[in-house]
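Worked example
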Amino acid sequence: MITAVDTSVLLDVFGADPDFGPRSRAALRECLRQGSVIACEVVWAETAASFPQPEAAADALDLLGVRFTSLGASAALGAGAAWRAYRRSGGRRVRMIADFLIAAHAREHADQLLTRDRGFARAYFGELRLVDPSLR
């Protein structure tokens, strides 16, 4: 089983979020027990922004066992198509294209996405299996 992980879950873990940290940590452990955990360049960049140095972020991701997997052209194009559908259906710019890139990467390279951000993913990536640690 390959799980793609969203930035929100990693920040819950690294920031020791009092509300979501324990559940996100447990869900991440379970996904690692079931197989591998991957993240695309968007997740790596968003995660690195919360560390004082990029190397510290890379070390932390490596320590957790999160592997870097590139988005790829097909996933990027799929994210663009989903973003266009979102905007055409009245979606506001509150939802950033980065979220669509993360979900499209998961659809292309993983069996499921570990995220607390289910709403748009369910609407625009309906075939993607979602694992929400906040529901555990």
User: Anything to note?
Assistant: The helical segments are 7-14, 21-34, 41-48, 54-64, 73-88, 97-109, 118-124.
